[in-house]
Amino acid sequence: MSAPRPLRVGRHALLVEVEDTAAAQALHAELLCRREAGTLPPMTEIVPAARTVLLDGLADPPALAAEIPRWTVPPLPPSEGEPVVIRVRYDGADLPEVAALWGVPEAEVARVHSALDFRVAFCGFAPGFGYLTGLPPELHVPRRATPRTAVPAGSVGLAGPYTGVYPRSSPGGWLLVGRTDAVMWDPAREPAALLAPGTRVRFEACG
């Protein structure tokens, strides 16, 4: 695995590039551990993405940029704590397509998907939208060839290695397998987002 590659972003930030989402998750976990141990310089934000981690609010970005490539970043440790459980009605419009891609009957999609342990790799696209890893490679699916102009809020979708829940109605090209009443984003709640990077998630079939 190649070393992380820090890039300057403005005066007080670094964008650290890595090989893939697994490496980004591992680096994010390592940064949180080092911050907890007091071995990181002060910073305001640590924001993971698909293949990067943004470090913002640094007083001396060049000093940390010189240090990070020398780190030994261990593999992502197992998630700790109780998972967020999201109850899902597995009746999505793309359930037949997903079942065909997985090579299982439609009724089996709920059983297979709800048996997996997911983890929020990063958030984006819309407030409250988490990109959840946990699908094994044989269950990865393509996006729709033509995105929908409107996907209902609460829709549970799959795309590539990810599972996600649409926090509000929006365009989208993920394959929809179900829907949930869980509120993914509520500005009146603290925190507003139900899911945050690193959170364990389990889906539970209902209805």
Overview of the structural elements:
The chain has 207 residues and is an alpha+beta fold. It is built from four helices and 13 strands. The protein has a four-stranded antiparallel β-sheet, with helices on one face. The mean pLDDT is 95.
Mean of pLDDT: 95
Strand count, sense and barrel status of the largest sheet are:
4 strands, antiparallel
**Low confidence ranges:** none
Number of helices: 4
Q: Percent helix among the residues?
A: 10-25%
- Write down how many β-strands occur, each being a DSSP E stretch of 2 or more residues: 13
Strand content of the residues, in percent?
25-35%
Distance between the termini: 44 Å
Write the H/E string, N to C: EEHEEHEHHEEEEEEEE
Radius of gyration, Cα only, in angstroms? 18 Å
* Class from secondary-structure proportions: alpha+beta
Inertia-based shape: elongated
Order of neighbouring strands in the sheet with most strands? 1-2-4-3
Set out the fold topology:
Layout: E1 5-9, E2 13-17, H1 21-37, E3 45-48, E4 52-56, H2 61-67, E5 84-88, H3 95-102, H4 106-114, E6 118-123, E7 130-133, E8 148-151, E9 155-159, E10 162-165, E11 170-172, E12 175-179, E13 200-205
Parallel strand pairs: 5-13
Antiparallel strand pairs: 1-2, 2-4, 3-4, 6-7, 6-13, 8-11, 9-10, 9-12
Helix pairs in contact: 3-4
